[in-house]
Design goal:
Length: 358
């Protein structure tokens, strides 16, 4: 029998989740509104590698696990009056209106890695050889993952090719254990995806991971280190670990195996992250994303960015890296740095100024 204290904490975590009330909805709408180009702020092609099963309906991919890695491209428009940090979404059942909402206009499925790689190569070459991979967190449906990847690419002003790696999250607050297991299943396929990108003409691959997605990312980087190719032949760029839902001791073990990074690993944490506080209580140990000893973490070779004083667009303070307008702009400035790589302290110093109201 569950102890009363544990049951209360479990219910609190499930009612919170990483993305509150994130239910799977149709990605491709049944109706649309024709609008002039001047009413669109951006049109983004999001390449997708996923461990989700393909869907026969407009959801495109389900929350169930696939035994194979699936590939696609989703074109998404951003409305003219979009506010940085927000994802303007239509209500379920309503027609698509690109003037007001993020709208998926087209989906292309690729039949295996060669076809996906060929399409990637053309896009990567056209964008100067840069790729940004986004790995989402717990309680994230496929449509929400696509829109978050689009919002990050748009608001950061990233010049390269955006790629979403979407593992099979259940997309429900009650699926925490299912999501943990799905994240474990996805490790090898994220490694496959990164190697496909490296072989598809990318000269620099930046990684942005959030919450439980940071665990998938760190496990994959650890695997790469074991193979002797921890930086993908020199192509691995910046690694951003936002609100990591990783046990502190596990993270230390992962970093010891990986070694001190050649290029920056930015660890974005916040002492007021309520989702990770609850996760840590249930797990019995602190999570990296709300760990208060920044100096301890910095000794592992990562650049710690404390967002505790920054405002968040969600009540749990769990998505500050993307929904805080100033933060997403700073992230974009960092990722837009070219191969010279600015000082590891530069983005941290800018954020300190931001915290002081400058």
């Amino acid at each position: 029998m569950l102890r009363p204290k544990f049951l209360i904490l479990a219910l609190a975590l499930f009612s919170a989740g990483c993305m509150t009330n994130d239910t799977s909805t149709d990605l491709i709408g049944t109706g649309s509104v024709a609008v002039p180009v001047t009413d669109i702020a951006g049109n983004h092609s999001i390449f997708v590698a996923t461990t989700r099963q393909a869907s026969s309906d407009a959801k495109v991919f389900t929350n169930s696990r696939s035994s194979e890695l699936n590939f696609a491209r989703v074109n998404v428009t951003v409305p003219k009056y979009h506010k940085a940090g927000q994802i303007e979404r239509k209500k379920p059942g309503k027609p698509d209106d690109p003037t007001q909402f993020f709208t998926a206009t087209d989906v292309v499925a690729y039949n295996g890695k060669p076809e996906f790689s060929s399409a990637l190569s053309k896009d990567i070459a056209a964008r100067g050889g840069r790729v940004m991979v986004f790995i989402h967190g717990y309680n994230t449906s496929f449509d929400s993952a696509v829109y978050r990847a689009t919002q990050i690419a748009h608001d950061s002003g990233y010049p390269g090719t955006p790629v979403l790696f979407s593992w099979a999250s259940g997309g429900s607050t009650k699926d925490y254990v299912y999501d943990r297991e799905s994240a474990s299943v996805a490790r090898d396929q994220l490694e496959v995806t990164l190697r496909v990108l490296a072989r598809s003409g990318a000269r620099r691959i930046d990684v942005v991971a959030h919450s439980m997605g940071t665990w998938v990312t760190m496990e994959t980087l650890r695997q790469l280190a074991i193979t002797g190719d921890r930086d993908l032949g020199g192509k691995l760029g910046d690694v951003v670990l936002a609100s990591p839902d990783i046990d502190v001791d596990v993270f230390r073990s992962q970093m010891r195996r990986y070694g001190k990074p050649n290029r920056p690993f930015f660890l974005m944490l916040s002492a007021d992250d309520r989702a990770l506080r609850l996760s840590g209580i249930l797990a019995g140990n602190k999570r990296v994303g709300d760990y208060k000893n920044a100096a301890d973490l910095a000794e592992l070779g990562v650049v710690v960015v404390d967002l505790s004083n920054e405002k968040s667009g969600d009540s749990l303070n769990h998505t500050k890296f993307a929904d805080n307008p100033a933060m997403i702009r700073l992230l974009g400035q960092r990722l837009r740095e070219d191969d010279g790589y600015a000082s590891d302290r530069e983005v941290t110093d800018r954020i300190k100024l931001l915290n002081q109201g400058s």
